[in-house]
Amino acid sequence: MKTKKKLDTNTVLIIITICLFIFMYAVGCVIYQDKGFGNFQTFLNVLINNAGLICVTCGMTCVMLTGGIDISVGSVIAMDCMLLVFGMTEWHMGAVPMVILVLVIGLIFGAVQGFLVGYLEIQPFIVTMAGMFFGRGMTAVICSGQISITEADNPLFYSWANAKINLPAFLGKVNKHGKVVVPYMRPTVVIAIVVLILIFLMLKYTKFGRNLYAVGGNQTSATMMGLNVKKTRMLSHILSSFLCSIGGILYCLNTMSGSVNQAKGLEMDAIASAVIGGTLLTGGVGNVIGSLFGVLINGTITVLVNTNGKLLSSWANIATAALLCIFIILQSVFALVKARRNK
Amino acid sequence: MDENLLITMRDISKSFPGVKALDHAQFTLRKGEIHALMGENGAGKSTLIKVLTGVYSLDAGEIHVAGFDGPIINHSTLEAQEKGIATVYQEVNLCPNLTVAENLFIGREPKTKLGTIDWRTMNKRAKEIMDGLEINIDVTIALENYSLAIQQMIAIARAVDMDCKVLILDEPTSSLDDNEVEKLFKVMRDLKAKGVGIIFVTHFLEQVYAVCDTITVLRNGEFAGEYTVEEMPRVKLVAAMLGKDFDDLASIKKEGAGHVSDEVVVDGKGLSHKGTIKPFDFEIRKGEVVGITGLLGSGRSEMVRCIYGADKAQTGTLKFKGNELNIKEPLDAIKAGMGYLPDDRKADGCIGDLSVRENIILALQARNGMFKKIPISKQNEIADKFIDMLQIKTASRETPINQLSGGNQQKVILARWLCTHPDFLILDEPTRGIDIGTKTEFQKLALKFAEEEGMSIVFISSEIEEMLRTCTRMYVMRDGAQVGEISGEMTQESVMSAIAGGV
Hints:
Number of strands of chain A: 6
Mean pLDDT of chain A: 87
Low-confidence stretches of chain B: none
Shape of chain A: globular
Radius of gyration of chain A: 21 Å
CATH class of the largest domain in chain B: Alpha Beta
Helix content of chain A: 55-70%
CATH topology of the largest domain in chain B: Rossmann fold
Number of helices of chain B: 17
Order of helices and strands of chain A: HHHHHEHEEEEHHHHEHHH
Largest sheet of chain A: 2 strands, antiparallel
Structural class of chain B: alpha/beta
CATH class of chain A: Mainly Alpha
Oligomer: heterodimer
Helix content of chain B: 25-40%
Number of strands of chain B: 19
Radius of gyration of chain B: 25 Å
CATH architecture of chain A: Orthogonal Bundle
CATH topology of chain A: ABC transporter involved in vitamin B12 uptake, BtuC
Strand content of chain A: under 5%
Largest sheet of chain B: 6 strands, mixed
Number of domains of chain A: 1
Largest interface: A-B, 31 and 35 residues
């Protein structure tokens, strides 16, 4: 038996994803140098704009690891945003109670979906589709129009949204007037990164994390080995909905508004990011680090298309489609190679 | 409860739709005992074990486990494990995507002070466990990188390491080679010395006599008796399993050899498939039963796959009933009148959710083409005919095939080919993993069809005895090449020396 350590194909897939991101970004820097793409702040903006999506994708990855899926996340975010904005403008509630309320709603939402998936063994697609319609419907029930939140409505929330975390000045750039523009991050990015690290550690070092992989690897085996498959699947949905609520709060801090059509299709962005990051739809394989780069690739595509200025923004979708295609084909090819080798 | 008893199961009954799997079955396990659980396929061995381990619920009866007052019921494998009952199933029940170490420890991972998983300790202990079994592998890579046999040993190691009072081994040896079986026996004897009770389910009689102390026989879901190994010679054991006196198998051949005609049905010259089989010749006459013998992996299956077109022949010519035939894919072979019963019935043969009838009709429908649907009345007629002829034990012809026992599934696949009335039928390990009674039936059926319908049959089996009973001639394979042909007076010794290379 070989004792030599071989890179397994899943690691290779993640490395490909990371390399692709670096390559795309480098190409962007060269082509759009004059438009300031190489500016460090551009990269930070990708993070700022996608902080919410990073949280959501972490949750999505956990559900997908068990072989499930959660397509309710987009409309849950819309519902969260609407509730936050409506609560603070119309009910004049404080920022802290509203945030807690949204998180609790996330837990309850996840518990209901998780119970249906785990204990009643209904297809996750169907369950979360119901959740999707419910979330979107609830958003419209709260308020059917578009509302925004201003400093006058809730100064605390406003200050959170506009807080800047300045980075060391040497990372910045000198502008036309000879002044140094100091690059900055938002607190939302910090929260997203913390969530990402916690989920990464959870997947690697906790029993629950490994159970997610086991359930996705082979559900029957997991049962036979004495793992509580039902509970694991339920918890994965609670985690997803909870992270989705955190994502919703970050999303709201970014947009400062709520509307019925907000975050439409975001669930698909999350799934696409996870898949590009090496998570298998069949479960058992994946990692949040890959998912992070999946989100970054998605974000970069959008920025590239926007920076060009002449391209229709829909080209971003087409680029994502092409990437998804490539990654799915790569995964199948690797699986085939593996199957042949084992023969 | 007696001090020495670990498990007593009394009057256990369990029904599935249309089938009574267990009917007042009994079972007793004592400390430091290796207890064989024997019976034909469908006798209820697996069901009894699954009831004990909480995979199935029981309809009636009582289970007592040492250390627990009153009757217990396990609702899940986890509960059984907590009571000290560990199980290794015939199919490897591990997660292919996790590492070897994780598969050994999941559910009971070593923890650090912070309560997180201690990977270093886990990998170290996993390495020790595998070294203890003299299996030198990298425990930090995914399980799917290893062969089925290694995976099975890992499953066994997991169960053994769980500090159990009772270890259940449900046909764990079907994918192991002799060397690995020996390792397993050593582990079993060590555990026995420590006072662990072991329930061992197997089809191999030699293994029972090699390690077991006690035998419980089940028959049609009922308790047929408990015996010590000493008081139970093989013939008596088989008789107990069948519930009748053992057929004198030796006599079933010989007389039939006369019906072979001179007409050559299949005549292959210089056939080969790169990487699997070197050029070989093959000839079979009408009504003849020919064997292909050799060690596992010597090219037995590859040879017939090449004839049948499952692996397209790259050189040579094939004449079928006198006409040259160019087989590009199995459908060409089916249309010409060949049939192939593959060795891996789960992967290549059965379609689990389809009914017995649909599974039987499949090949016939494929030959007729998609659009010429066979009328349902005709289908029913064919299905009933074969269920009756092959004595397939099924609740009805509409029962999904995966509810049948292994031997009966195999009969359904046989029926699938028989109903296409092939001139040439390949049986690749038709009797593997099925009990001795059904084996005999299969052998008889092969001979019957050769004699009465003039079918030419290729019979492949790992058991030389079985081939001696059925075949008049054998091709000998070694290392992917045809190395000889034997016929006439064949004995176990002459065949074995041919395989080993002493011809």
